Amino acid sequence: MSHIGFYRKKAKFKGIFGIRARLVLLALILVGPLMVERIRSLEDTRVKQVSMASSELSALAERTAASQREIISSVEAVLKSSAYIHASASRIGRGCATLRASLRVDLPSIRMLMVAGPDGVVRCSTSTMFVGLNISDRSYFKKAMESHDFVVSDFLVGRQTGKGTILAAYPVSAIDSGEEAVLVAGLNLDWMSGVMGNLGGRPGVTAALVDGDGIVLATPPDQMSLVGQPFVGPAQPVSPGLNDLGAEERAFSGEAPGNNRAVYFAPIRGTTARLVVAVDEAKVSAGINRDIRTAYLQLFLVCFIVLLGALIAAERLIVKPVNMMTEVAKKFGQGDWSARVCRKRLPAEFVPLARAFNAMAAHLVERERGLVAINNRLTVMASIDVLSGLANRRGFQSRLDFEWMKAEQNGTDVGLLMIDVDHFKPFNDTYGHPEGDACISRIGETLAAIANDIGGFAARYGGEEFCLLLAETDRASEVGEMVRSAIAHLAIPHRTSVFQQVTVSVGVACTVPHPANSPRDLIEAADAALYAAKHRGRNAVVEHGFIRGSDSGLSMAS
Questions:
Q1: Which DSSP letter does residue 276 get?
Q2: Dist CA 109 CA 123 (whole Å)
Q3: What would the pLDDT profile of 378-412 be if each residue is shown by its tens digit?
């Protein structure tokens, strides 16, 4: 049973993986790797593109940070020079005037210069609107006074101008301990933003110079709306001591939390500010992502077209021809010997198979015809008595049934002669069986001739007994006398017979077929008449008629 189950599963498996499925699988094997390789190549290109963009932006960020550091350095240099000038001029009482006369604030990175006393009140400024302004509460002023060093403020809004700015402060006491004053420079944020122009115009890239609180100080020109706004992303203050480690000389990166962005930091020496560049990898790789989506779509379309083509090719080139040949084979198997495969409708690969099938069909037809002919001959041979040359009992019965049915349909009569050779056993005993066979043969020839002349049917019923079937005749008794006389005229010697020659006794019966009687009744009537003829002394003809009585019996009429 296990073997049967295994073979059933195997047959089912073969059915699932038919020729269509195999062609589809082959098409996928051929096309799939090519498209997958293309997609893999695009994925690699995306990774490389993002990596190259990241490397490029990192380098640009570092260069931009260096430019910002140079701006801060130049402002520090200006403030230190101004501090020297102010300290020198103050000794002669002309500090502010000398500052205004000797220093032209035409640097693009500086908007104005001013000098505040130890109380934080601005005593001198390149812009008169700032004179008298109290900045003692500003953190940058306090830090400068405490540290006696260069200080840069975070982003703040000017009290006089109402605009955002950052300020740099340098105490004069750093170079002259006798002078308690602080020089303050207002930095030009527009200039600082202009320096970052090389980071602008890039999809997915956000660049900003932010202070310690994460407020945007400067951006590329195309992102100026972000100035003064909190920077979106990881813009945490630089940890203490970072500048001491030399981190201002290099950029470092991290991942923006909850966002697929790479962030690059570059601290500005001497300040809490740093340059931040955020790269949105999705936007940077938007072009290659479109190409990848297009590749996936192309893969789907190519696979669909290939699969459809494989199915159509399988249907037209393989399945349809096979089905066509199968149908022809079924018709041929059902007995339509003319069924042939039309080679014109087949692909060239199937033509030899169709030619072989047609040749086989023609050969089988010839064999079938030969078998039919042999069968017909066997049927005839089975119905012929070889010795007499007449039909045998089987053949006689078939002919009697046919004539009976025909007469019943037409309402005509059927006549039957039962013929028996008189004293045939003594003839065989006297002359031997070869002579007996010769006697039977000559009687058969005589009966065949008579049957041919009158349109009857002669047969050997068995042993020395013959019969002659007559259709549509009313002279059965005459035919019986004709048979008796013809046999007597053969003058075959028979010394043990009272007639000294071979003679026959004939029983005759005639009837019109009716549902109440049958061919067997006719045979029994003729046989009864033959029995009567023998009792009359043989070499005689006796006729038996069907006479219906109250007891449905048969009576003889001579």
A1: E
A2: 23
A3: 666 667 888 888 888 888 998 899 999 999 888 89
